[in-house]
Amino acid sequence: MKTDDYSDNIVLIESLRDGDEKAYTYLIDTYHHKLCVYANSLVKNIYSAEDIVQNVFIKVWEQRARLKSDHAIKSFLYKLAYNEFIDLYRKNQSLFSLEKTYHDALNSVVLEDDSESFQRVLKVVNKEIESLPPKCKEVFVLSKKEGLTNIEIAEHLDVSIKTVEAQITKAFSILRSSLEERVKSTLFLLFGKKKKLRLN
């Protein structure tokens, strides 16, 4: 069987069920990076994200005999990653209902059409960020993508902290009004906390 055949969902799953190590290697090569991006968007820690993904692939191999050929392997992988995240979260702190709501929202966006849907959402968000007024965009990017504090931004741009806060508030207001409902939850989760994120 040629490696290219593994791009067929049924062929890939049946090969995995048969213990085909080449199929397993193909699975890892194809989805490792995408799953790391997804896991990191949840746990906000690349090392923890890599641990989650490693556990996902271990479980896939351990559970390969139970895989069903009529189920999308991508959805299965993302669901495993999400469940691993929930387990990790519960070990470290209580799962507050509000935070779970937004994690579930992001999860549903991804699982709706797997990784392609998530990438489309990110493109929509990035496009809207690019359309922000120049000063508003500059402050928002420094804060939410570069991870600078409001004080650091104020010093960098030689403006007051209140100006920085006002620009960030304005940016969120513009983005919320221009994005679809299902994208707003993703926006909140991606930029709701002070984190440096790479969305390209």
Tags for this model:
single chain; 200 residues; Rna Polymerase Sigma Factor, Chain: A; Arc Repressor Mutant, subunit A; 2 domains; 76% helix; 0% strand
Terminal Cα separation, in Å? 35 Å
CATH uppermost class of the largest domain: Mainly Alpha
Count of individual helical segments = 9
Order of helices and strands: HHHHHHHHH
Query: Unreliable stretches, pLDDT < 50, 5 or more residues?
Result: 94-98, 193-200
SSE diagram, text form:
Elements: H1 9-17, H2 21-43, H3 46-62, H4 73-92, H5 97-130, H6 134-145, H7 150-157, H8 161-178, H9 181-191
Would you give an account of this structure?
The protein has 200 residues and is mainly α. The chain has 2 domains: 1-95, RNA polymerase sigma factor, region 2, helix turn helix motif (Rna Polymerase Sigma Factor, Chain: A, Orthogonal Bundle), CATH 1.10.1740.10; 116-200, Arc Repressor Mutant, subunit A (Orthogonal Bundle). It has helices spanning 9-17, 21-43, 46-62, 73-92, 97-130, 134-145, 150-157, 161-178, 181-191. The chain starts with 8 loop residues before the first helix and ends in a 9-residue tail after the last helix. The model is unreliable at 94-98 and 193-200 (pLDDT under 50).
